[in-house]
Amino acid sequence: MNGEEGWSAHPTAIVDEGARIGARTRIWHWTHVCAGAEIGEDCSLGQNVFVGNRVRIGNTVRIQNNVSVYDNVVLEDSVFCGPSCVFTNVLNPRAEVSRKSEYRDTHVRRGATLGANATIVCGVTIGEYAFIGAGAVVTRNVPAFALMVGVPAQRIGWMSHHGERLGPDLVCPATGRQYRLAEDDRLEEIA
Q1: Source organism's superkingdom (predicted)?
Q2: What pTM, to 2 d.p., does this model score?
Q3: pLDDT value for 184
Q4: Is residue 2 predicted with pLDDT exceeding 90?
């Protein structure tokens, strides 16, 4: 199936009427996009992805297989979601208690990477170009360029814009881009 705006979806995908999908976005097997979702241009949604009604996805986002992006999640441009990573939207779910009015916002900033099987607990912001390692559980805000691993996730270093781990000199080994630590323990790219 091809959307009117130049996006495409596999015949097994379900795209509810009303979903807004940008040009050249590809939606693969057994994926469901709900009516209220907004998805940018040049995205790829892998097999068995779910996108809720109150979800905003920027341009050039890559969502790998088996990822559910629930309501109140925003993924900015160029975010990478690894296979089977998980988003939540309620802190204390109970089957017998409806908590839809208690959803917490989760915001993943431009260029961030979420590794395979990472869990993002609702109500956090993940900074630009942060790198969440496979299997990590994020329970608090993550600064830009931070390399986070473990349960709960802890910062063990810094990553460059290019996705390379930075050494003590804070220079990207692939591009030569330079970074510096600000007084408040934030990493900044030197212009």
Answers
A1: Bacteria
A2: 0.95
A3: 87
A4: no
Distance CA 144, CA 46 (A): 26
Q: Which residue has the tokens 């988003």?
A: 87
* 90: nearest Cα among 75, 78, 100: 100
Mean pLDDT of the chain: 96
Question: pLDDT by residue (tens digit) across 5-29?
Answer: 699 999 999 999 999 999 999 999 9
> Taking CA 175 as the corner, what is the angle to CA 166 and CA 120, rounded to the nearest 5 degrees?
50
**What is the β-pairing status of strands 32-33 and 14-15?**
parallel
Question: What pLDDT does residue 64 have?
Answer: 98
Q: Are 39 and 21 in contact (CB under 8 A)?
A: yes
Query: How far is 83 from 150, CA to CA, in rounded Å?
Result: 17
Distance CA 187, CA 166 (A): 11
CA distance to 113, 114, 140, 171, per residue, from 42 (Å): 17, 19, 30, 30
Please state, in angstroms and rounded to a whole number, the distance separating the CA atoms of residues 10 and 139.
35
**Taking CA 128 as the corner, what is the angle to CA 82 and CA 168, rounded to the nearest 5 degrees?**
95
| Burial status of residue 62 (CB atoms within 10 A of its CB: 0-12, 13-18, 19 or more) | middle
Query: 183 falls in which pLDDT band (50, 70, 90)?
Result: confident
53-to-45, 110, 184 alpha-carbon distances in Å: 15, 21, 37
> Tokens representing 181?
């630590």
Alpha helices in 2-82 (DSSP H): none
